[in-house]
């Protein structure tokens, strides 16, 4: 009987593909409708900037215990580089087991000091901020809920501690301190069950997308943004796409980013329950920007993976590379890469700037951090002009730089940038622990009338915006559907 039913999955990110795969594995027909022209959602790569594909979205797998995505990559036969501590930060990372958390390097802008993690052990304010977040799992839920900025100020910490919390924690959570809800931070700390190992695959993350979509090709339509979902008393649904395409289904699994639901970009008839609409509006998903800077050679410490910066333009830079040598692009514009990550209100403000100003300020910050000869304090920023070709930005005119004083500017080769708030079918980075959002994720995940089902990282009750949360939520929604079909 299940084969006679049709399940339409809206969205072909990890949640949608995992849901479709699970439904199909039980002999039920499934059709996936993806708004963009490619599969994978926030998993995207950029080729040609450096010799390996650069991840524009998530980069690392977070934890290998109890992890569905770790199980999948093992099935695929992937080789993984493991990092035993939380020293890396990525588009979708999650800070948990905070007693082990430590960035590789710290740049304290107010002191113009670059510190290793060992040197940071003697910096009282760095240790204070880590201690506060490490203790969150033992905190009681505030009533009413408060934002992390208020929580820190109630603890009477210094402004330096607040700035460290902004750069190390809030930025990584994908927001600003005033957007970060303490209640959901407590839940995230309590419910992390995946271990504290970070893993970097030997191939692009698109390989996971390919693996999940294998066998679904006949049932996947790209460039089909869903605009209307109508469910009838007869039990059937009609899913209508931009351009007029219509599909009749018995069940629908909606896996779009929470911002799409908040903006009501999909019309539901009858309307969704108010509790679900409110949940979508309560769960925050802020702006996120990645600045990709390619250089002709490395000028930062060889052992550095990550540097967190306070009182600076970019709060976070990291340096990794795609480990596989077999598909290196020797014609790439640069040889090595630094990725700058900015989230929350800072990202929203940065997105208003020109690309030339963004790249100029990022390079100037790196010059300041890594100069062998320290620059004059309060030196005037020079905004260079960058020209764009094929999505890459290079200098419009050559300019002399001193490699000892301005290493980033001297070795700069090319740049690119992705602003996820401007991606029409995403509109932000990833969901973050939000103010007054306790219970909102469970509400967002609830089925409606036994016909509409919901998945995506924002529906994960563990406040987990990582890739395994998206996959787990897709499987959960698929099994809810199968419980109605089989």
From TrEMBL:
Q: Does Signal appear among the keywords?
A: yes
Q: Which domain of life is it from?
A: Eukaryota
Signal sequence coordinates: 1-20
A Pfam short name: Amino_oxidase
Q: Where would I find the Amine oxidase domain in this sequence? A: 14-482
Q: Which UniProt keywords apply?
A: Signal
What's a Gene Ontology MF term here? oxidoreductase activity
**Can you tell me which family this protein belongs to?**
Belongs to the flavin monoamine oxidase family.
Its name, as the record gives it, is Amine oxidase domain-containing protein
